Input
Amino acid sequence: MIPRVLFVAAEAIPLAKTGGLGDVVTALARAVHDRGVEATVLIPGYPQALEKAQALRPVATLDDIPGGPVQLLHGTMPDCDVPVVLVRNDLLFAREGGPYQDPHGHEFGDNAIRFGALCHAASVLALGETRLNAPDVLHAHDWHAALSPLLMQQRALRTGKTAVTSVTTIHNLAFQGNFPLHFAGALGIEPRFMDGVEFWGQLSFLKAGLAYSSRITTVSHSYEEEILTPRFGCGLEGLLGARRDVLSSVANGIDTDTWNPATDQLIPARYTPSDLKGKVASKRGLQQLFGLTVDPFAPVIAQGSRLTGQKMADVAIDALEMILAEHPRVQFVALGSGDADLERRYHEFAARHPGRVGVIIGYDERTAHVLHAGADILLHGSRFEPFGLTPVYSMRYGTVPIASRVGGLIDTITDHGPNKTPVAGATGFLFDGDRPQDMADAIWRALHAFEQPRTWRKMQRDGMLGDHGWRASAEQYIDLYREMTEGSGRGRFKVAAPIDVVLPATATSSEKKRA
Ligand code: ADP
Ligand code: GLC
Output
């Protein structure tokens, strides 16, 4: 039996995206869909999603949902035939700003209710209470969806229906959806389920997903190991350790059609691993777009990520100041948005170095493609990185990454090594630490290698030829879904027992002790 899967998430490109989550939800849904899995994506009905989804038609109205009644609209993704269901409640989702924040960058005060509504809708769909086919697997992505396994089990116990098996995928453990406990009432969480959501005196969406899902996955092997430690576990390492037997990882892939320098219409000129002429033209285009001096021989370092502490955006400016002071030619471009203070500092940084530093604050898909194509080096510092799509995009475009030795970056980038001659198959530069000097040392290593054209070409080519598509990962997810549904018949499962059985006692009591 090929399982039917309901993906629940806050983002799915091109309907909604603020980061890698949106890329991965759609690309994975499409990859498993292409291999015969009936995958449906459930996301909130943001205005842009309502506009872009195709052939939408109402399939249900649900009255008993936090924040008010919602309409479920069924349609398909615009660029592929993956089915999508949008949860429409305009008071909750038709707002100015992004999926989580208002136009000034402030989190919406009722995000618990907004994503609680998404999770309630997921639980109704999972129990087959609409005219859409019930899934065999409920697949929740990140905290926004992570209350769904709990709500499904709670609803199943209440209605006598049988819950389906569920998996929660951690794309980023640092974002947990923690809210004041008093939201439990508005979210309809019954007292007997509270142990699984209570986290240091707060209500945690992500903890609920980790406690109530049949399986937990994350998006790289190294991150799977890291999140079991206090340094990267964000307080949830105890619970994750207790559920170690159901925790696994499946590495992300990238959409190799969208990110393909041989066919990309968003970049100045196309190119392939064996003919990089188009990359030279793309570099010129990038220098012009960012207001840099057009110089084909200047090494161009680029940064294209959220301007936040996770991405070491604070460290990068200081590291680059050191490099710019000593290297006569190096140039730097940054595309990003995030912390208001960092945005201001990046503007000031560009103003201090006209012609050598160019900054575009904002979020723009086309500029991101031009950046990956036109740069020589991608700078991607991270204090933690579950996977890190951006350096993989850069490698595909022959742009050599410098990245932190954490999480998925360890798995996707082969470090050049300390010697003049790179190790076999090297594709980038990894560094430890989060001081400007740590990053600057790695930049120097890259700049020295850049001066060796043959070495550099080889690193570019090896990066471009790496297999980062979804094939292998999609197959691993399908195996996981099969394992989860084996012997169950068409997705019918016994309701999992309440929390004291699902969540090992050790995890809750140790957390209580610490709290
Ligand atoms: P994260 O999800 O932690 O932000 P990833 O590197 O996995 O990190 O994914 C980031 C995604 O968001 C990539 O697709 C990247 O191109 C995109 N992105 C980030 N910032 C911007 C921006 N300012 N403009 C366009 N795309 C961006
Ligand atoms: C998160 C992580 C990033 C990962 C992405 C997709 O946003 O920060 O590392 O690539 O999710 O899984």
User: Anything to note?
Assistant: Confidence is low (pLDDT under 50) at residues 489-515. The CA atoms of residues 122 and 136 lie 13 Å apart. The pocket of alpha-D-glucopyranose (ligand 2) is lined by residues 19-21, 24, 171-172, 219, 252, 385-389, 408 (CB under 6 Å).
